[in-house]
Each structure stands twice: as C-alpha cells, then as structure tokens.
Amino acid sequence: MQVQARFDGKIYHNTLPTSVSPPSGYGPLLKRYLFEKAEREPKAPLGPFRADAAALAAPVPADALRATWLGHSTTLLEIDGRRILTDPVWSERASPSQLMGPKRFFAPPLPLDKLPKLDAVILSHDHYDHLDAAAIRFLAKTDVPFFCPLGVGAHLRRWGVPAARITERNWWESAQLAPDFTLVATPARHFSGRGLTRNNTLWASWCLLGPRHKVFFGGDSGPFEEGFRQIGEAYGPFDLLLLEIGASDPEWANIHLGPDEALRAHRLLGGGPLLPLHWGTFNLAFHAWRQPVERLLEAADADVPLLLPAPGQRVDVAAGPLNSRWWER
C-alpha cells in the first residue's frame, strides 16, 4: 500500500511520527548557537560564479540530460528537450524579511532576467529557502506553468500567477507536462509553513519522467525508508537524483537527511548519478558550511557517481562523475 500523508481538515501529517521541535529543547539549542565554533559561514567571500546564459538559452536537444545548480535547492534541468526549474530562490535572504535572516554566501550565478524560457517550475514546499516570493512574482510575468503540492497554489495566486498556470498534486498524483512527459508528486518526510502557520500546505518530492530520461527531485525530507523504497520501485532507477545533504542535525533528524541518510535514500531509490542540494548557500544549521559535501565524499562508496559542480556550472550527466572542489578554493 502506497504511503500517504494525512490531512485532518486543518493540517497535513507525515506518515511516520515526525518531530519538528528539538528533543533537547530550545535552551540547549541557543547555547550551541552562541558557543559552538564551527565555521557556519565562509570566512572569505565566495565567487563570483557565472552561469553561461547564452549556452543555456540554446535549444535543448531531445536526448539531453543536463543540470545547472544555482545554489541551495534551485537547479535548472535540461531534460529531453525541456527546461525545468526547481525551487527558485533568488533573494539575498531566506527569510520573511530581507533585513534579517540567513544571508546568501554568494550571488545567484544567473540573474533572474537571464533565465532561458522555461517549460515548468517545480516546487517541493513553501519554506522560505524553497519558495521565494520575489522570484515567483518575476516568473509570474512569463507564461511558465507551476507544479506544486496541495495548498501551495494559494501562495502563487497571491503573488500574481494565474490559476490556470498552477497544477497542485497530492502524493502519487501525476500531471502531464506534455503527452510524452509526466511529472509525479511523490512522498517526503518534512513539514511546511510560512510565518506562524505550519503544515497547512503539503510537502513533496517529484519524479520527472521524460521520454528518454528520469529525474528524482527530493525537495526536503528526513529519513523515510518505506517512502523512498516505494518511489524507487514505482519509478526508478533514475538517470539523475537531486537529494538534500545540508542543514542537518541530530536535533531535527526527522526532517532533514544529511549526507549519510542521503546516501541511504540514494540506495533505496535505486542508485544513479547523485547531485547534492541544500548546502553551501545559507547558514541554516550548526555544522560548518563545508561539512555536508566533505562528509558525503567521505561516506560515499566508489560506485556512487557524484556530481559536484560549482554554482552555475552546467553538468552533462552522461559525461560521468564530476568533482569541482569549488568549496576548497
């Protein structure tokens, strides 16, 4: 039986018992924030990084599978003749206010107005580091369709996206981007909310099923063995997996994977080239900003094809593993 989120008429619930509050309490968390000495932000400025806007604007070949990581969970995918953007965040801060909150370590490698024509925008959930109101308002002026979990469409409509361009889906529900291209909202173990609200919208991962290639975009999720196993059995193996590795901590181990659990999810999903997301862009945890990728490299077996491009660097997945080591420079 496929795992399902539960909606009680007011809020959504994870399939598994999932704690968002730290088990040790907020007092110890504050103490760690004040006194732990990890290098949570780069000591020297990063970048500038530059994506090749002209190359990205060229027609996408019908057999292409390429990815350009723009920071955090924002990735421009070129797959089977289409361009798909995930979780667009361009603002300087992942916060309800641009005056305070987590600040970007580097400027976006591709300005919003240099984005090529998109075939779809896919959203995993409505947290500020995944759903940027300013970016949505800009994209609302184009004709791109949006695909999102249940409830997230209300945000989009408020920011100017016409209802006709919004498709909302529950877990395991599909939508046709084209007759030969299917998008499927799939399970994740996380939570949602902006401001004081929590869990009144759904969170999801997504399967992008083109005529030649299949991509898994994990969004945010904690460990979810049954969910990942079912996704892998239904739609895997994938030609590319995008999984989060950063902003993890034992105090919120239910809602973020971290490097080790990302590798476990990778196995459950059926393996394949892995491009890690959700690290190296914002200070959202207590670990050093480089720790997620360094631990991933340490823990990954030799048979895990890792794609570790610099921000804005276009990756041709068929070319094989890539390690730019940009964080060491």
Automatic annotation (TrEMBL):
| Domain Metallo-beta-lactamase, chain residue ranges per copy | 71-266
The cross-references to InterPro entries, in alphabetical order and at most eight, read:
Metallo-B-lactamas (IPR001279), RibonucZ/Hydroxyglut_hydro (IPR036866)
Q: Which domain of life is it from?
A: Bacteria
Q: What are its GO cellular component terms?
A: cytoplasm
Spans traversing the lipid bilayer: none
Q: Which PANTHER family does this chain map to? A: N-ACYL-PHOSPHATIDYLETHANOLAMINE-HYDROLYZING PHOSPHOLIPASE D
Q: Under what name is this protein listed?
A: MBL fold metallo-hydrolase
Which species does the entry assign this protein to? Hymenobacter properus
The taxonomic lineage of its organism, from the top, reads: Bacteria, Pseudomonadati, Bacteroidota, Cytophagia, Cytophagales
